[in-house]
Amino acid sequence: MVTVNHLSVEDPDDSFPLLPEAAEAETPTPVYHRQRGVTKSESKEFFLSRRENLALSLVLLIGCYSAILIPAYFPLDKPANISDDSLYPRDLVLLNRSASLLSDPCQPLWCLNHLKPLSCSADLLDIPVFVQQDRPESWDLPPPLGLQGSEENLALALASLPHPDLPSSLKKEGGCKRCVVVGSGGILHGSHLGSHIDQYDIIIRLNNAPVPGFERDAGTQTTIRLLYPEGAPTSADEYKNTTMVALVVFKSLDLAWLTSVITKQPLSFWSKMWFWKEVVDDVPLKAENFRILHPEIMHKTEEVLQKYALKHGNTVPTIGASAVVLALQLCDQVSLAGFGYDMQHPEARLHYYEAVRMDTMKVQVVHDVSAEKLFLRDLVAAGAVTDLTGAL
Questions:
Q1: Could you give the CA distance from residue 373 to residue 341 in angstroms, rounded to a whole number?
Q2: pLDDT for 204-224, tens place per residue?
Q3: CATH of 92-387, one of 3.10.20.440, 3.20.20.80, 3.40.30.10, 3.90.1480.20
Q4: How far apart are the C-alpha atoms of 328 and 307, rounded to whole Å?
Q5: Judging by beta carbons within 10 Å of its beta carbon (0-12, 13-18, 19+), is residue 2 exposed, middle or buried?
């Protein structure tokens, strides 16, 4: 029989005194670990000290946070998992068709003549384009389909605009004109339509859809940028080569924002709280370069879309659909680029300038994009407008 008389509890790392029994022992008996006969002195060499363990943990923690946060502040130039076909035109047939269209002379009254077969044609003609100071109106509907309840802010905004009416350069009387409405759709990516877009008489863009960095597909010039405050570009570079910014009024406070950016008098902190995201304080354009889109454009677009809607409800037209109706008022011939949501391919690009996927559109309930696509398809089928990117 083997008898163990004393058990050593000595630990060189501990600052506590030894137990009396251990202190009396002349020769401490080494304690052996049960795992493969490794002594405690040997295991000490394997395990890190407390200080080293803490330092290693901090390094790993900082490394993990860096891996998560750095890509958010320094995004990749090329979206992940999206093939970069920007070096070559995606569809040479469409590109050649666009070139052929531009090589032909402008056809006066083309849209008007091709709209006649459509049942909604009467609703799409002779709509006022911009709100004018010398034409006071009684508004029956609140924004965005009217300006009821916004009369005070409207008066202040109009007072800050030296020329609120339609410029002579945009009137049809000045000769046959071609419009192109540049949508934000991912279908525009890789189209190489930029040089074609710049050849149109009137180029309409939407909200903060960028131009710098995307000139090959989207062009460089902007005649009218339709926007609302939360959708206004934040970079001054986006307003270069821009003739006009037209405000789409979704709420009365949008008019106060317009007055603010024209007069350079900042909005109050309380007013800014009512925007659903931060808005810019400065738009680097002169006062004569601003307009207010007439809400009848939105109203008529909404009425037409109700005829295509599968479920009738309180939906608001997108700025894109309203821009098409605007173009029909300004130009003899209208082309579209970057239109058409492909909901059958949820992994496809939603926008030409970012990696957001198509399936994100499924969660929004404000716009009826299905009805809008049917409406635009009818315009294309009737020959009233031309789809340059072929997604309609």
A1: 8
A2: 999 999 999 999 999 999 999
A3: 3.90.1480.20
A4: 19
A5: exposed
